[in-house]
Specification:
The complex is a heterodimer of chains A (288) and B (285). Chain A is mainly α. Chain A is 74% helix and 1% strand. Chain A has one domain: MetI-like (MetI-like fold, Orthogonal Bundle), CATH 1.10.3720. In chain B, α3 runs antiparallel to α8 and α5 packs across α6. Chain B has 2 domains: 55 residues, no CATH class; 170 residues, MetI-like (MetI-like fold), CATH 1.10.3720.10. The relative contact order of chain B is 0.13. The chains are: A mainly alpha (288), B mainly alpha (285). Chains A and B meet through α1, α2, α4, α5 and α6 of A and α1, α3, α4, α5 and α6 of B.
């Protein structure tokens, strides 16, 4: 054997992948299959048995609480997706394209990431003294004489959930978009400008299409996290906003495993559809 | 021309954006210096004090507000994060190493692994607890079931980091070692590993911080109160009245992360300098 045939064989042995596959199969694939399986189990008040039944499924779709949670989840997901995009894109545009110095754009990105060093739950909780009736926003607005009465809809409403989630997740939009914008060849933009294109035209014809993979990756991050949320919605809405995640938590809390599983399957289906649609737009493996 | 108008506007916007990102944390920091034990978690500040910080360290006389139950939870979380970090980095390096050669079904395997970071914690947590609780019938613990779900979550991150590093890795140094008759394991240890070490550090950092702050998976997959990790202990205070002690704790954990990242930065700097030195020696030789 010559070295040429030995080398590629030694460089990566395929068995190295096995432990990873086994771990993911056992602790991700099997658990999700488990959710599907248990969703057909028979649930009584204190017990659950593996006799197959559709009872929990029927109960889900005949109850306004559960179907309501499904629509609330979809609604909040779409709103937060839109707000994180709207808030994040201009920032990414500045960081990725307008800042000429590499150092400054790195510094700005690090500034965006620093808040993540605070525990997620504490970041959620930090919105309470911001939004409350005697919270920072109301105090500042009253001091500035913009309002005379404190705004009460800020906390413990759907709005507070949306504000909180937008802040917590918008950085996941900024990162990937800024990355894609940073990779754009400046000469293309120069060329377009030399040919007389205005900024609006350059943006819509060149910048935005080239940043689209970043938008999709950011959207996947945000979607996955928002769809599986329950802590933010619970803590900032005073339990008024119930997402699918909240239903799962309360059902497990009262040992209603079958109902929690039905909700879990529905969440999985929603998630799968969302990811499939996004991946259809962009091939994730190619962008890496 | 446009950039002369647009750039300042965008710069202002970014400033506002940063304010939006940091606003809640500033307010939280201010309120953590609220007077104790009677001051509430809202404005106005009755009197500036470090009462709530002292309370965390058990330096205050007992009052009607119980101190945060974080002591043991913190240790559990740190141990769990360490276990998760080691396991997922080892798995990540191994898998990325395997991916350097095309093999059948590599795309499927790639998505199988990456799915781990996409599936919400609620689902893996629920599924794992169903599996343990209702099907196999074992007790859930932070160091068994919760650990398994944590690795299934952090390992994809470690894998992607290592994949990015190894994609840019020049294999000719390894071939040089092999052609000199060094066996693959020694080659990996003496040649490949030192070169990919900065990547390994990033993978470790990712895994550690993600696991330390992991909440939904632990909520389902860890057992009862004797299994509480730090995020679970914090979550426990959500349901009852909140006090400024949790704000003070938030400030402290943030400072801790800063310290952790500084250590990472120093290690990274050292390893980059060492690599540069090695490269220079090679140039001379």
């Amino acid at each position: 054997m010559t070295d040429a045939t030995v080398a590629p064989k030694r460089r990566g042995s395929s068995w190295l992948i096995l432990p990873g596959i086994i771990w993911m199969a056992l602790f991700m694939v099997v658990p999700i299959l488990m959710i599907c399986y248990v969703s057909f189990w028979t649930q009584t008040t204190f017990n659950i048995s593996s006799t197959p039944t559709l009872a929990s499924w029927k109960q889900f779709f005949s109850s306004d609480t559960y179907t309501g949670a499904l629509w609330t989840t979809v609604r909040i997901w779409l709103i937060v997706l839109a707000t994180t995009f709207a808030i994040g894109y201009p920032t990414a545009l500045f960081v990725g394209l307008f800042v000429k110095s590499k150092t400054l754009s790195t510094v700005l990105l690090v500034i965006c990431v620093i808040p993540f060093w605070t525990s997620f739950l504490i970041r959620v909780l930090a919105w309470r003294p911001m939004l409350g009736k005697e919270g920072a926003i109301n105090i500042i607005l009253m001091k500035l004489h913009i309002i005379s009465q404190p705004i009460e809809v800020l906390l413990f409403t759907e709005l507070s959930v949306i504000i909180g989630m937008s802040q917590i997740y918008c950085v996941f939009m900024v990162g990937p978009i800024a990355f894609m914008l940073g990779r754009i060849d400046r000469n293309i933009i120069e060329a377009a400008r030399d040919l007389g294109a205005g900024f609006g035209r350059i943006f819509w014809k060149i910048i935005f299409p080239l940043s689209l993979p970043g938008v999709v990756v950011g959207a996947i991050f945000v979607s996955v996290m928002v769809l599986g949320e329950f802590a933010t919605s619970g803590a900032l809405s005073g339990r008024k906003v119930n997402l699918l995640g909240n239903i799962i938590v309360t059902q497990v809390g009262s040992l209603k495993w079958a109902m929690a599983s039905v909700t879990g399957v529905i969440l999985t289906v929603v998630m799968g559809m969302v990811i499939a649609v996004f991946l259809r737009i962009v091939d994730l493996k190619q962008e890496l | 021309m446009e950039s002369r108008v647009l750039k300042p506007i965008l710069a202002l916007y970014v400033a506002a954006f940063i304010l939006f990102l940091y606003g809640p944390f500033f307010v939280l920091t201010i309120l953590s210096f609220q007077q104790g034990p009677d001051g509430g978690p809202q404005f106005p500040i009755i009197e500036w004090s470090t009462y709530w910080y002292q309370q965390i360290f058990g330096l205050t006389p007992p009052s009607r507000i119980a101190p945060l139950p974080v002591g043991e939870a913190l240790i559990r979380s740190l141990v769990l994060a360490f276990m998760t970090m080691v396991t997922s980095t080892v798995l990540g390096v191994m898998s990325a190493q395997a991916f350097r050669r095309k093999f059948r079904g590599s795309t499927v395997v790639f998505y199988l692994i990456v799915l781990g970071m996409m599936v919400p914690g609620v689902l893996t947590g629920l599924g794992t607890s169903l599996l343990a609780n209702n099907v196999i019938g074992i007790t859930r613990h932070w160091y068994t079931t919760a650990f398994a779900t944590h690795v299934a979550y952090t390992y994809p991150f470690a894998f992607l980091v290592m994949l990015a590093i190894l994609n840019r890795f020049d294999g000719s140094v390894e071939e040089a070692a092999w052609s000199l008759g060094v066996n693959p394991w020694t080659t990996f240890r003496k040649v490949t590993f030192p070169l990919i070490f900065p990547g390994v550090l990033s993978a470790m950092l990712f895994a550690f911080t993600l696991s330390l702050d992991e909440f939904p998976r632990s909520l389902f997959a860890a057992g009862g109160t004797e299994d509480q990790t730090l995020p679970l202990a914090i979550y426990g205070t959500f349901s009852v009245e909140i006090h400024p002690n949790i704000f003070a704790f938030g400030v402290l954990t943030t400072l801790f992360s800063f310290a952790l990242l500084s250590v990472y930065g120093v290690l990274m700097g050292l390893s980059v300098r060492r690599a540069r030195k090695l490269a220079m020696q090679e140039d001379i030789a």
